[in-house]
Amino acid sequence: MKRVVIDINSVLPLYSRGWVSGIGRTTKELVDSINKMENLPFEIVLYSQNTKGITANELNTGFESRHLSLPHKPLMNRIIGMTHLREILTRYDLLHIPHNFEWVRNPEKTVVTIHDAMFFAHPDEVFNHEYAQKVYPRLARRCRAIITCSESSKRDIMHYMDIPEERIHVCPWGYNQRLFYPEKGQKRGYPFFLMVSCSMGRKNTMSVIKAYEQFVKQSPKHELVLVWPNTPREALDYCNKPHLRNHIYISSGIEDERLSMLYNEATATFFPSRYEGFGLPVLESMACGTPVVTCKNSALTEVGGAAALYVDPDDIDGMCRIMEQFEQGDLKKTDFTEQCLQQASHFSWDKCASRTVDVYSKCLESIS
Q1: Which of 305, 367, 311, 365 is nearest to 340 (CA)?
Q2: Same domain assignment for residues 241 and 94
Q3: Is residue 278 part of a domain?
Q4: pLDDT tens digits for 274-321?
Q5: pTM of the entire structure?
Q6: In which band, very low, low, confident or very high, does the pLDDT at 184 lie, cut at 50, 70 and 90?
Q7: Are residues 133 and 260 in the same domain?
Q8: Residue 103 is part of which domain span?
């Protein structure tokens, strides 16, 4: 039986610090969903690499695992990619890199998931996107196939990396149905607006804060909750202004159970990002029945559909007006719930896993 090896190193921080980035979350959900599939036409093996002894066994799947006790660092990964070390350890027929890029010895036997083309469309020095512009296309142009999460990302990958359309396969993400669903019960405390996955850059969090700053002049009941790991000093100082400090609350990285509770209790989720390869907060909020205020760009309209409220990312007045409408009852959360749930139902990790397995099968056929 042929062997497909999935690199799950982006998931492992979950077991060391308690939470992971979007790439880690999506990789874990994908592996968990493939694990539920029966009669796979090939063997799945999970690959992990670190010196802490945190292995793929932490995922509690039925898959075999292979662990390399070397640092998972760029220089070491490049050395591994120049040797046959990973190939000897895993003996793969097909390797899946689900985190945009890795140095690999056999790109013709590799599938890479490129989540977006943000490093071209909205480069940011903080994330070393100049480096990504140089190295990511190297694997993309030579690998067997590319998986991405939206039609928007597919178009951007074709445009920025000059990749033929037929080599790019869209496998839209899903949401964890055991975690993100409408919870019935009494809400606690004051009503609030929510923003998650915050940043000073393309996530556009400061526009939400400034809109709320206008809104708070009306002495509203609604507060603002931001989920923002490693909040920069500039944002902390801004939110600590006398007229804001008792109305804006910032939470660092949180577990998914707590995130689900926040989605459920929020009146609305604000996510006016300037660019997204997909937009998980939009989907997860809607899966909880909570309306989303987002923008008509990149993949956000694919995920939000007709259920989202749309604003321009620079329209601070418009965001403020939406806050006012929810505060005054002109907009009601319950008016959006059914439409949000219907839109969320179009996406699932089972569908994503099925499409991904189809990509594996096609690649294995072409290799043999």
Answers
A1: 305
A2: no
A3: yes
A4: 999 999 999 999 999 999 999 999 999 999 999 999 999 999 999 999
A5: 0.93
A6: confident
A7: no
A8: 3-174+348-367
